[in-house]
Amino acid sequence: MTPEGMKKAYDNLCREGIEGIIAIGGDGTLKGAVEFNKVNNIPFIGIPGTIDNDLLEQITQ
Fold first, then answer.
1. Catalytic residues, which ones?
2. By residue range, what is the domain housing residue 23?
3. Which tens digits make up the pLDDT trace of 27-57?
4. How far apart are CA 25 and CA 6, in angstroms?
5. How many domains does the chain have?
6. Is 7 domain-assigned?
């Protein structure tokens, strides 16, 4: 959630040779994936998986 945390996550992904992420979740997960991608240019595949039925928010934005 912080620039420092994103940098650490990015460094770990690079160190492990991970080139993309599959994110499973709802609104918060997918918004976080978008923000991480903007900063670090790591591709994400988003798969809806929500317990609070907030998928419509992502579809309409």
1. 52
2. 3-49
3. 888 889 999 999 998 999 998 887 776 666 5
4. 18
5. 1
6. yes
